[in-house]
Amino acid sequence: MTILIKGGTVVGPSGPYSGDVLVDGETIAAIFAPGQAPEGPEIIDATGKYVIPGAIDAHTHMQMPFGGTEASDTFDTGTRAAAIGGTTTIIDFAIQRYGEVVQDGLAAWHAKTADQCHIDYGFHMIIGGVDDDSLKAMDQLVASEGITSFKLFMAYPGVFYSDDGQILRAMQKARENGAMIMMHAENGPAIDVLVKQALERGETDPVFHGLTRPQELEAEATSRAIWLAAVAADCPLYIVHLSASKALEQVRNARDLGRNVFAETCPQYLYLTLEDQLGAPGFEGAKWVCSTPLRSGKESHRADLWQGLRTNDLSVVSTDHCPFCMKDQKEMGIGDFSKIPNGIGSVEHRVDLLYQGVVEKKLSLARWVETIATTPARMFGMYPKKGIIAPGSDADIVLYDPNGRTRISVETHHMNMDYSAWEGWEIDGKVDTVLSRGEVIASGGEYKGRKGRGKYVPRSLSDYLV
Ligand code: URP
Ligand code: ZN
Ligand code: ZN
């Protein structure tokens, strides 16, 4: 089937232009100057809309077992919500826990996703136990499984934590096979000391989750990861969910030295604060318990992160979508903040939330598209199949209405959460129509796709490495 997306403003990494996009089957066949396209195909009128590549969320945790419970979005509910919000590909984290065989962990994630996803998906692999076997498995995943990025944790001792020696070994392996090391950069052992001391003082409210994870412990871990990667012959390193000015400074310094160091941030760090959200009265703040934590609004974190996005010291905006309901899940931490499952859900809202950066003149249109679509595709080896409106690319396309309005609420969202971290937000812009590999899967806020249509995307090495 051929479709012509006519009359819109195509936005790519090099900026906006007027063009008509011809879709043939699952791919983009051609882009015509206005009025030059052949007659015949079904027309989608894009007048007044931006035509952007389907967004890619490079950091999600659907139905992830974590914190004594499981993330509340399944691959079914989470990818459906993502689709409605303009995201057409996710990269989720398959998990190898300490003592498990890496390939078994991966097989478990393939089993969870089989026939469940509404959009395309890839996997990163969490290595929870670095040893001879898991290092060997990294080679096999890169060579044969389309998995070219591995997440390690400097936080969560006793759960996913790797010590510096293990991190160095994994980085050396990644340097050999070309993979990207993704790092959760917080000093877990030091945080555990602060958490214990806080609880002993009777400081049990959600806000102490943030106060026991000061930015210095994010900056220190970020710096340590950067220097360990240097020892591993400049192994490619990607810092996940970067939240704080001092951590950003470490990344900026490394990049100024020409290092293979990259970082992402997430919408929650660009907009929300420790005082206003995490510090909400009573147990309300539990809604925003995530790690790294929300930072103080009295400091310059949010402004610094927006600047980092403009200067490319922050390359990507992902959600770190890891939703938990208040009832029975976040509530596990009443009386002890350390038992609140860590995570926020935003997979449905990232495209809209980042568009506010354009509205507020913090980002150009091109940079909006780069940070939510093109760069994640290039960073994680899916480009040019994904992340760009170009002939030959998958027809993953979003029509975005800059004159629309979006109101975010638990009453209307599609994520499997009993609250919204963005309740009542009224924002400019609206996802109008979403195509995934040539199929209209959402239009006017109505979902038209189906469970199981999403395909696994095996990934190549990152484009950003020479
Ligand atoms: O709070 C978070 N970020 N939960 C998900 C796990 C992780 O560290 O990304
Ligand atoms: Zn993490
Ligand atoms: Zn995460």
UniProtKB/TrEMBL annotation:
The modification N6-carboxylysine is found at residue 151. Carbamylation allows a single lysine to coordinate two divalent metal cations. It comes from the Bacteria. Keywords: Hydrolase, Metal-binding. InterPro entries: Amidohydro-rel (IPR006680), Hydantoinase/dihydroPyrase (IPR011778), Metal-dep_hydrolase_composite (IPR011059), Metal_Hydrolase (IPR032466), Metallo-dep_Hydrolases_sf (IPR050378). Its cofactor is Zn(2+). CDD domains: D-HYD. GO terms for molecular function: hydrolase activity, acting on carbon-nitrogen (but not peptide) bonds, in cyclic amides; metal ion binding. Residues 50-440 form the Amidohydrolase-related domain. GO terms for cellular component: cytosol. Belongs to the metallo-dependent hydrolases superfamily. Hydantoinase/dihydropyrimidinase family. PANTHER family: COLLAPSIN RESPONSE MEDIATOR PROTEIN, HYDRANTOINASE/DIHYDROPYRIMIDINASE FAMILY MEMBER. This is Dihydropyrimidinase. The gene is hydA.
